[in-house]
Design brief:
Length: 370
């Protein structure tokens, strides 16, 4: 068979770029640039976010003996300030890991631009809707006293002779490592947890907490400090010149608290009405109080009906009295001292019908061992 006249197979080849029309060339170029741009921004966003997240964690960790263990999302504005969403901060001490606070949003105002400027410092911290936990352990140790001390594992920054720390963008120089313009709390919740030596715990909760914490000339100040407390209003003022040894002055005041809401935790057989007002002060210094803080206060309940309070059950049983429609304790006034883990009542007046009770006593801070 003669194959000389057989048709040869067709060959395919790629169309050279020069053979494309001018509009096609522009379309191909624009597509390639768009693809490169998308890849660049995706990579940049992933790397940049991770680096900024690490920077924020390191900056916060350097403020004290606590660590940022969870961040939901992170943003950086044009000024270089970092916003952390759904952040959780924990403390670790003596082998125990505890939640210190969580916040819907944490804004860190910095002294420069992350990943661009060196020797960054936190100039201000804003906490939006945080949930905070202040604990007093059974041995009398308060987490807030050591949480804001720099961890022994965090070295103090050393600047080279030819390198100067960045001046704040619009703030005054910081006092040591504490944010120069303070820590601001907006609409927070604070849980005060008291642990007793017997192993029991009691928790008091403050809502709608707003506070400013600043360190001025070495003095840590928390003022103003306001909150809602079981239907009443809470106002506090705190100053501390040292945590080791402890030197602190605390003044707290509660007005218009709802006794029924406070007593509900004790499980009375029926709601206990009444208005609660109290003033409290605490001081601690090696010269004045020795190694342990001493507190004193005045507490008053009016327009109440306190007969069903669990604290009265033993007293009423001893007097062979039982609740009745014509029996009522409507006013209570207490003067008290707190030292170590003991709550000592120096004056106790319960006024009502058919009896009025006067005396003194003591119990653990968690409400046990009356």
């Amino acid at each position: 068979m003669d194959t000389a006249d057989a048709p040869s197979p067709k060959k395919t080849s790629a169309t050279p770029l020069s053979a494309l029309s001018l509009p096609a060339r522009y379309t191909l170029l624009i597509g390639a640039l768009a693809l490169l741009t998308v890849v660049y921004w995706i990579a940049r966003d992933i790397v940049y976010t991770r680096l900024v997240k690490r920077t924020a964690q390191n900056l916060l960790n350097n403020l004290g003996s606590f660590g940022v263990e969870k961040i939901g999302a992170i943003e950086v504005d044009v000024q270089g300030d970092i916003t952390l969403h759904r952040a959780e901060i924990y403390t670790r001490r003596r082998g125990q890991r505890r939640l210190f606070y969580r916040a819907e949003k944490v804004v860190l105002s910095l002294s420069g631009i992350p990943l661009q400027d060196r020797n960054l410092r936190i100039q201000r911290v804003d906490l939006f809707r945080p949930e905070m936990f202040v604990r007093r352990e059974a041995d009398g140790d308060w987490n807030v006293l050591w949480a804001f001390q720099k961890s022994p594992g965090v070295p103090t920054p050393v600047f080279k002779e030819d390198t100067k720390p960045l001046l704040p963008k619009e703030f005054t120089p910081p006092d040591e490592s504490f944010p120069a313009n303070g820590v601001h709390v907006y609409d927070g919740t604070l849980h005060l947890v008291l642990s007793g030596r017997s192993g029991g715990e009691t928790t008091w909760t403050l809502n709608s907490v707003n506070a400013v914490m600043e360190k001025i000339h070495g003095v840590l100040q928390v003022r103003p400090f306001t909150a809602n407390f079981y239907g009443g209003r809470f106002v506090g003022d705190i100053e501390s010149t040292s945590t080791t040894p402890l030197a602190v002055d605390v003044r707290l005041r509660v007005t218009g608290g709802d006794v029924s809401r406070m007593a509900a935790r004790l499980g009375p057989p029926r709601p206990i009405p009444g208005r609660f007002d109290a003033a409290f002060s605490l001081t601690s210094s090696r010269e004045e109080t020795g190694r342990k803080p001493i507190a004193s206060g005045h507490l008053m309940i009016t327009d109440g009906d306190l007969w069903d309070l669990p604290a009265f059950s033993g007293i009423l049983a001893a007097l062979a009295l039982s609740p009745g429609a014509d029996r009522k304790i409507d006013t209570a006034e207490l003067q008290f001292l707190i030292h170590e883990d003991q709550f000592t009542i120096t004056q106790m007046d319960f006024l009502g019908y058919p009896v009025c009770l006067f005396g003194d006593g003591r119990m653990d801070l968690n409400g046990q061992n009356l």
